[in-house]
Amino acid sequence: MPPLAERNLFHDKVRLTVTVTGIVFSVVLIVVQLGLFIGFTTATSNLIDHSGADLWITSKNVPYVEQGVAFSERKLNQVRAVPGVADAQKVIAHWTQWKRHDGGQESVQIVGINVDDSMERPWNLVEGRVEDLKSPDAVILDELYKQKLGVTRVGEVFEIGGYRARVVGFTRGIRSFTTSPYVFTSFKNAQDFTRMREDQTLFILVRLAPGANLVEVRQGLLDHVKDVDVLTNAQFSHMTTFYWMFTTGAGVAVLIAAVLGLVVGFVVVAQTIYATTVDHLREYGTLKAMGAPNRYVYKVIMKQAAISAVIGYVLGMMVSVFVVHGSEKGGAAILMPTPLAVGMFFLTLAMCVGAALVSINKVTRLDPAMVFKG
Amino acid sequence: MQAAIAVRNLTKKYEEGTTGTLALRGIDLDAHAGELLLLMGPSGSGKTTLLSIMGCILTATAGSVRVGGREVVGLRQKELPAIRLEHIGFVFQGFNLFPTLTAGENVELMLDLKGVSAAKAKKRSQDLLEQVGLGGKYASFPADLSGGQKQRVAIARALAGDPGIILADEPTAALDSETGRGVMKMMSDLAHKRDRAVVIVTHDSRVLGFADRIVKIEDGAIAAADDAEMVPAGLLAREFPRAAAGLV
């Protein structure tokens, strides 16, 4: 086939620029909106998803991780006695106040862990070591929140909940969904910072023994440990995400923005591809008059749409990567996991081909006599 | 001899709301291989509608149209492109070349529709452009060609499918007098030397001298002296005396 689709596309540089710009705009809009949505949902359950635990033991009816209710740490021994439990550790995740050098206060979420254990440790450390948290007043926080908390370097001393706190390290990319940054510290420090009684904890994290059955161990825990909920990591993650995204309404706004991004993106692409097709309507009429079956004409239009999609996708993703990279140091995370990047390719293709189908409808209804008009 | 196109009692009505416009009323007409037939008449007389139906682009409301011996009235829309592709080549007033393709590729497009391989299509395209006197213009884009050259490319494209019938709509309207004569000479040769049935819709009285027959259409019907269906070339002087004096 003579390269009609390619030539139609590349012949008019202005039209090509308009078409590609429309698709690039749509790709970036959709990636940013969906990326924001993914970033928000990921941030809500960050602590749970990175905990490394199989099960979470909480007080009854705790709806999400930030809403833990204290219970006796003596349950830890009961948990450890249940068959199939390889490891169990106390964890605190609770809000308290961080006092900056200028006297200002910021709300933070203290995450108290057993430093010698592998569960719920801070990840992505860029400065310091987790083991540094063994010091009585040591804390690790994310570099994203340095400015917010008035921190400039490791070694600085602040006040948390009226207790001395010394920064021993920084992580990168551990965002909180709320405005309160996570501050990692030892379990003992966390009790002090949050003014929790020494014999209490908020959560017990459980890791199963190799080969142990999750359902059976969970049931065993429910049977042997009273007045607690036993949730799988996935369950608790989902509950927390659901709470923040939908119960608070914050996530609904992001979700609606993402859906609007999809709709606006599709409309822009549809309008762009439609205009490109209509520009060549007379030629398609001529093709049909020459005896080209509809499928031949459709092939030209589809090919044109597919080429536009590929060019728009590549350029759009280049811009998107730039935006995503730029957001890493910003307040809102825009994530572009591989499935989103790959899915976006097929979505762009589908949008362009779908838009072409709309314009094909116009071609199908072409007044054949148009070819006889001078 | 079987007509390349045989039209019988052809009626075309355009529906418009509750009323309709009768564009063609009981047309009977044959176009034979080896003759050049002119369809003439004032604007709105129905000649382009007739050409469109003869070319299987529009469908008739009633009557019969046989193309290459096959009845086409009543065929489904999706069956018509194959008839066009097999039997008919079109030449348009506005040339209707694909501006983004070269002259050669414009011709190859028709060959591609016919299923000819790319290599053979290129060779055939070059041959056809040679035949219409554009041997050196294979790689030229339509924008770089004169009106006459564009129309010759269009003729080469129409011939590419090796059709038995050439239908042309005002092929000289956009051309100057001399170029128009050249194009008409080419159309005449197609009829007389290559045995095609050539049907031309035209307002251009300068081309009358090339016609074997002239059919005058008025108000959707064939109108000729003495109610004759066809106007033989011999009647040219009576029907179009000024044109005949100038060209024949």
Q: Can you give a write-up of this model?
A:
The complex is a heterodimer of chains A (374) and B (248). Chain A is built from twelve helices and twelve strands. Chain A has 374 residues and is α+β, with helices and mostly antiparallel strands. In chain A, the strands form two sheets. Chain A has a six-stranded mixed beta barrel. A two-stranded antiparallel ribbon of chain A has the order 2-10. In chain A, helix 2 crosses helix 11. The longest helix of chain A is centred in the C-terminal third of the chain and has 34 residues. In chain B, the strands form two sheets. In chain B, strands 3, 6, 7, 8, 9, 10 and 11 form a seven-stranded mixed beta sheet that branches. Chain B has a four-stranded antiparallel beta sheet with strand order 2-1-4-5, with helices on one face. Chains A and B meet through helix 1 and helix 10 of A and helix 1, helix 2 and helix 3 of B.
Q: What are the main properties of this structure?
A:
heterodimer; A: alpha+beta; six-stranded mixed β-barrel; B: 248 residues; alpha/beta; seven-stranded mixed β-sheet
User: Which shape of chain A, going by the Cα principal axes?
Assistant: elongated
For the largest beta-sheet of chain B, the strand count, sense and barrel status come to:
7 strands, mixed
> Structural class of the helix and strand makeup of chain A?
alpha+beta
Major β-sheet profile of chain A: 6 strands, mixed, barrel
- Helix share, percent of chain B: 25-40%
- Please list the strands of the largest sheet of chain A in the order they lie side by side: 3-4-9-6-8-7
The succession of helices and strands of chain A, N to C, reads HHHEEHEEEEHEEEHEEHEHHHHH
Q: Tell me the number of strands of chain B.
A: 11
If you average the pLDDT of chain A, what whole number results?
Answer: 89
